[in-house]
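Researcher: Structure for this, please.
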Amino acid sequence: MLGFGEANKIFWSKSLDFTGRARRSEYWWGYLSVFIISLIWSIAACVIVVFMLKGASIDLSDDDEIFRWFLPKYLLALSPMLLLMVPVYAALTRRLHDTGRSGWWIVAYLLCSVLYLAGSFYLIFNMFDIEESLENMNWGFFLVLTLFYLISVVLGIVIFVFTLLDSKPEENKYGPSPKYQ
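Model: Predicted structure, token format:
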């Protein structure tokens, strides 16, 4: 098993490499470091935006106005964290390769998740009057949305289980095993 430092060195040096294989320790220690970076970045972004809020000329007693002011600035402050997704998905792809599976599992998961989120936002922003919305609900759309959600959950669990499996000791179409070399 690789230690935290060695695993992170490999994780970050291969942050744009979607080919080859990755050991469990490389993937999980790297994932932990991305989680820590994300947590620190999120807290810092929130603190900065809250300090900006103190100097803003908005009605602090109006929760809706605060939310409309705060949310776009906070999301903008968090947007650089999207770059952290690239090394995570690269390592996840290599991790799947290490277990003899294709990285297309991730694409299927992301596609279902994005479709579910897009549909959810569409519903949320079009349900201003909940009683009227339920009467006029397109139940077919709702069922398809629910299907995308369920598929996303199942794919997420399957991919998670794949990341926990041991490396295939033999060489596969993605290369030699980094664990059993």
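Researcher: Any notable elements?
Model: The mean pLDDT is 87. The chain has one domain: 4-164.
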